[in-house]
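Structural prep section.
Before we set up the soaks we want a predicted structure of the protein with alpha-D-galactopyranose in place, mainly to decide which crystallisation condition to try first. Input record follows.
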Amino acid sequence: MLNINSFKTEVQIDSPGRINLIGEHIDYNGGLVLPAAIDKKISFSFKKNGSNTCEIHSVNLNSSFTIDLSEISRSESEWQNYILGVIYHIDALKAGSVKGFDCVFESNLPIGSGISSSAALECGMAKGLNELFNIGLTDLEMIKLSRDAEHTFVGTKCGIMDQFAVMKGKENKLLLLNCDTLDYKYIPADFSPYTVVLLNTNVSHSLASSEYNVRRDECNTALGAIQKKYPEYNSLAEIEPEVIEEFRPILPEKVYNRALYVSREQRRTLEAVECLEKNDLKGFGDCLYRSHEGLQHLYEVSCKELDFLVDFSKDHKYVIGSRMMGGGFGGCTINLIQSQKVDKFIEKVSDAYRKMFDLELTPIEVKISSGVSRSLHRLKK
Ligand code: GLA
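Run finished without errors. Recording the tokens verbatim:
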């Protein structure tokens, strides 16, 4: 068992969560997404221990585990798998580079709320080991191996958006990422006089991971069918809605709906970026509402708690946009609310939510911050 009180940190890492303004379920369909890193994060302390084992301690879970570097395999525990996966994939790229180490981490990112505590854990681990052992991995290598860790050790066939945002986020900037080419640019995140507020439903339906993989398969089915006639398409996101329409008679209804959602969401993301560039925040907010409608009815990854929050916001003019965020089936909505009205709205919506579901809502005000970084401050004792 690690003695946290006498832990002599050699490398300290902060790894943030992320929001996504728009472009949901688009990353694994090869399109554009608009995420950003936030000021909520996991803080890690690392030190070498000169052995062939690793001791990892999660402060929040008050739980530790030991890894024998000579035999890395999956564990029964999900949070351990994120870490095991990262070590495994670093070793696959740079054999023997990870040696024995101790690590303590603590988080203020709510788990299962769609703000990517998983990518924060993976990328923080990758960055910490890269620094501790001078492995020389590039950001892109760390992004990809963190995603691979989630595929192979956790079993969620996620896209690349979360790891990209967590690694490459910048203060007050949104990241417009093309998930096909991995080209990206930063755009100013200026929403004034509105504030970005997350409302955490505090529900996380167990469907999330299995249905996620089902959506991915459905999208591949649609793309495969369309490519038979139009082999020039490489991804679902690039296909125009009119072309998708053509396949309505031959695709199963659900598969058709998924494809139509993806095609429209990609175009909405472009529209939303244009709105931001023109400082048309109401137009931007409207894109968020339309995105939610698609996620609810065509992509079917929402749930009654999320739908309730989005519907409730529509009766309040000072909320100009709202939608579910992340993988879905629970987690948070992302809302653009007139700054002076934030407190009032939170009070009203929390009351209504409590009455409806007998559950507490957790509001989270987020600042758009930098990605994974080595920090100077030490773990709180
Ligand atoms: C999860 C995945 C991402 C992305 C979103 C939906 O957060 O990890 O890759 O697909 O869902 O946009």
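Observations: The CA atoms of residues 354 and 360 lie 6 Å apart.
Flagged for discussion at group meeting.
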